[in-house]
Amino acid sequence: MTQQFYVSPEQLMRDRADFARKGIGRGRSVIVLSCRDGIALVAENPSPSLHKLGEIYDRIAFAAVGKYNEFESLRQAGIRYADVRGYSYDREDVTARGLASVYAQSLGAVFTAESKPFEVELVVAEVGEHPAADHLYRLTFDGSIADEKGFVVMGGAAEAVVEVLRSSFSEDLDFPEAVRAAVHSLRQDGTTGAGPQLGPESLEVAVLDRDPEVARGTHRAFRRVGIPELETMLTSRESPV
Amino acid sequence: MPEEAAASVARAASTSFSDHLGRHHPDLLASRSRVDFPAQGAGPALAPHATTIVSLTFAGGVLMAGDRRATMGNVIASRHIEKVFPADMFSVLGIAGTAGIALDLTRLFQVELEHYEKIEGTRMSLDGKANRLAAMVRQNLPMALQGLAVVPLFAGYDTSRREGRLFSFDVTGGRYEEQEHHSVGSGSAFARGSLKKLWKPNLDEASAVQVAVEALYDAADDDSATGGPDVVRELWPVVYTVNSAGTRRIPDRDLETTARNVIASRSIAGREA
C-alpha cells in the first residue's frame, strides 16, 4: 500500500504560486495606463495576430500576460459573459467590476481545486467619462483582485518597468505621449537584448477612446493602433528618450 | 481524455452568439418560446406589424429605407417606429412582419456580428452574415406558421468585391441575392413597381435617396399599412446608406427636403398618380 506524504496547505499553496509566477515571469511586459484621451494598452508582442490585448465590450478592454491558450480562453469567456449580459439586460449594465469579479472567482477556484493553476495575469480596464472614473482591475493567478489607479504593469520585468514609468507618467498625457512613455519604459526593462530596438513591428498597441461617439460615431471605444499610426505616435515631436 | 480535447476543436467551429444562447440561456431566445393560438392567422391583430422596406444599389454602395408606420389590424399602432437598423459597420437590416419578434431578431443579429468580430478578431464576410441571418429567420418558422412571421431585407457593402449587395429571405430560411433593387412588406408590390421605373444604373447617393423616398410614397399611396411622409408631425422615412466608408444614416433635414420636393412635384403635376 502506498503511503501519501503529508504536505501542509501552506506549502501546497506556496508551490502552486511559485509555479504560476515562474510561468508568468517568462512573459514579455504589458502596460495599461489611464490618461486624458482614454486608456492606452501597450504590449511587447512580436506576433501581429496572436493578441495579448482584446476588446470585451463597449468601454471594456482586456490585457493579459502568461500562457496564450489560458488567457485566450478567459478572453473568449469574458466576451460571452459581457454579450449575454448586455443582451439580456442592457448595454450599460455591463461593467468591468462585474466581469473582474467573475474572473477572480474562476481564477481562485482553479488555483485551489485544479491540478495546475492558471499561469496568467490579467487586467480588465473600463474607460469612464474622465480619468478619475476609469477602472483598472488587476487579476492574478490565485484569484486576488486589485483596483489600481493610474497604470498597471504586468509580466516578467514589471518592477523595472514600473520604476521608469513612474517618472514620466501623469494623468494629463494624451495618447501619443502615453504610448511613448510606455514604450520608453518597456525599452528599459533590462531583460531583452532587443530592448532599445523595440520598434512598431514588435509592439501591440490598442486604446479605449474616452468619447468614441464623438470621435468615430460608434459606441465601441476599443481601437487597435496599426503600425503606420504607431510610427507617427512614436516619432511625433521629440522623443522622450 | 485526448479524444475529448480533440473534440473541442470541432466545437470551436461555431462562434455564434445565438448558438451559445440556445445552449446555455434558451429562455432568452424569442424563437424558442412555444405559443399555441386558438386560431391561425390571429397574429396581425394581436401585435404590431411592421410594413414596407425598400432597398436599392447605387454607385459604390447600397441604400435601405423604411416607412414609419406599424399597424395592428385596422389600427395604426405606431407612427414613429423605425424598421431599418445598422447591423454592423458595413451592413444594414430592414424588417417587415411582427414587430416585436423582428426587433428582437435585429438586436440578436447585431450582437451576433459584434460577438464574432470580437472573438475572431476579424469581420464576418458579407455572405457569412446573410447565411447567419437566414438561419436565424428559419428558427422562427414555428412562430411564422402561427401567423407571427418576420421577413428581413439585408444589404451591405462587400469589402472584397467592392460593391453593394442585397439579400431577401423567406420564412423557411431561404436566402436570395437580389439585383438592382428589392422591397418587402405589405406595400412592397407598389414600391417595386415604382422602383422599376425610377431606378437607373450608377445613381449617385442623393438621387438614390430620392428614388427610395418616392417608392415609399407610392407604396403609402396604395397600401393602407404603409405611412407616407408626415408633414404635420414632421416624420420622414428612415434611410441608411452603406459604402466603402461604412453605414451612414441620412439626416432628417435632408429627408425633409427630399420628401417635400416629392410632395410638391406631385402637387404641381396635379394628376391622379
UniProtKB/TrEMBL annotation, chain A:
Activity regulation (record text)? The formation of the proteasomal ATPase ARC-20S proteasome complex, likely via the docking of the C-termini of ARC into the intersubunit pockets in the alpha-rings, may trigger opening of the gate for substrate entry. Interconversion between the open-gate and close-gate conformations leads to a dynamic regulation of the 20S proteasome proteolysis activity.
Biological processes, Gene Ontology terms = modification-dependent protein catabolic process; proteasomal protein catabolic process
Looking at the keywords, is Secreted present?
no
* GO cellular component: a single term: cytoplasm
Domain of life where this protein originates: Bacteria
Q: Kindly indicate whether the keyword Metal-binding belongs to this entry.
A: no
GO MF annotations in UniProt: threonine-type endopeptidase activity
Where do the coiled-coil regions begin and end?
none
The cross-references to HAMAP family, in alphabetical order and at most eight, read:
Proteasome_A_B
Summary of the function given for this chain in its UniProt record: Component of the proteasome core, a large protease complex with broad specificity involved in protein degradation.
- Similarity remark: Belongs to the peptidase T1A family.
Q: What is this protein called?
A: Proteasome subunit alpha
Automatic annotation (TrEMBL), chain B:
Alphabetical GO CC annotations of the entry are: cytoplasm; proteasome core complex, beta-subunit complex
Pfam families on file = Proteasome
The alphabetical list of record keywords is: Autocatalytic cleavage, Cytoplasm, Hydrolase, Protease, Proteasome, Threonine protease, Zymogen
Tell me, what controls this protein's activity?
Answer: The formation of the proteasomal ATPase ARC-20S proteasome complex, likely via the docking of the C-termini of ARC into the intersubunit pockets in the alpha-rings, may trigger opening of the gate for substrate entry. Interconversion between the open-gate and close-gate conformations leads to a dynamic regulation of the 20S proteasome proteolysis activity.
GO terms, molecular function:
threonine-type endopeptidase activity
| Residues that make up the propeptide removed upon maturation | 1-50
> Where does this protein chiefly localize?
cytoplasm
Cellular localization per UniProt:
Cytoplasm
Question: How is the subunit organization of this protein annotated in UniProt?
Answer: The 20S proteasome core is composed of 14 alpha and 14 beta subunits that assemble into four stacked heptameric rings, resulting in a barrel-shaped structure. The two inner rings, each composed of seven catalytic beta subunits, are sandwiched by two outer rings, each composed of seven alpha subunits. The catalytic chamber with the active sites is on the inside of the barrel. Has a gated structure, the ends of the cylinder being occluded by the N-termini of the alpha-subunits. Is capped by the proteasome-associated ATPase, ARC.
Recorded family membership: Belongs to the peptidase T1B family.
Any idea what this protein is called?
A: Proteasome subunit beta
Q: Which organism is it from?
A: Arthrobacter crusticola
Gene name for this UniProt entry: prcB
